[in-house]
Amino acid sequence: MPFSSHLNELRRRLGRSLLVLAVIFFIGWMGFGEVLQQFFMQPHLRAVQELAAYDPPILIPARLQLLSPLENIFYTLKVSALVAVLIGFPFLLYQMWAFIASGLVPPEKRALMRFLPWSVVFALIGICFGYFFMVPMILEFLYAIPNQDFVTPAYRLQDYFSLFLMFTAALALVFQLPIVMMGLGSLGLVTPKLFRKYRRHFILVAFVLGAMLTPPEPFSQLLMATPTILLYELGIILVAITSKSRAKAAKAETEESE
């Protein structure tokens, strides 16, 4: 296919993707804006409820502050856009695959089809882990730090949503670690022994990444580093399984050739 045809194909697929995203976005914004706002507020509300059950209770306002007349509008637009991307992601992925697959040879297609679905699954697991567990726990910890004898908590909607996006996006990326490790193992570039050898180095790297991707306090860093280390161990197991499968396949191929 000539270069101009590639550009036309890319333009068509981008146009379809943007159209689907726009339709989902406007449906969410016009019809479910308030529901989406409540959905993304749940980690904050869970943290507030947990703190209210402390003895003595720590009372945090359930209502977040708005410091601009436009802040709530932009919040609704952001959550609608985020939901549009999440719901439309399978279609986006298909359009991306249809464009790339035409330039791949069959072994490359098989390799991508082996790992791409698992990559999406692990990203969704990371997002769910953040929404249901990590973000509420971190908020609970952060909200409990200030001494209310000296300060009055007044948290802003925009700051909360930025924190929420930061953690969920970071976890979606962190949960790709086992897939990347398994992919390197399937290519024969690494072995389980190599990953085990550098386990201690990776633990240090996990805490450094936790410090970079979280607020500057130890609890958030620990919560980010712990699943990263567990995912590394899972990656070692997957690489070991992949290596055994490759060894069996190579042995069978050698026996057939003899």
Characterization of the model:
The structure is a single chain. It contains 9 helices and no strands. It has 258 residues and is mostly helical. It is flat. The model has no long low-confidence stretch (mean pLDDT 84).
Instruction: Give the fraction of residues assigned to helices.
Output: over 70%
Instruction: List the uncertain runs.
Output: none
The outline comes out as flat
Quaternary state of this entry equals single chain
Q: Calculate Rg over CA atoms.
A: 23 Å
* Secondary structural class: mainly alpha
Counted by DSSP, the helix tally is: 9
Report the biggest beta sheet as strand number plus sense, adding barrel if it closes: none
How far the N terminus sits from the C terminus, by CA atoms, comes to: 41 Å
Arithmetic mean of pLDDT? 84
Tell me what portion of residues adopts beta-strand conformation.
under 5%
Keywords:
mainly alpha
In short:
This protein has 258 residues and is mainly alpha-helical.
Structural topology:
Blueprint: H1 3-31, H2 33-52, H3 71-101, H4 106-144, H5 157-174, H6 177-186, H7 192-197, H8 199-213, H9 218-257
Helix pairs in contact: 1-3, 2-3, 2-4, 4-5, 6-9, 8-9
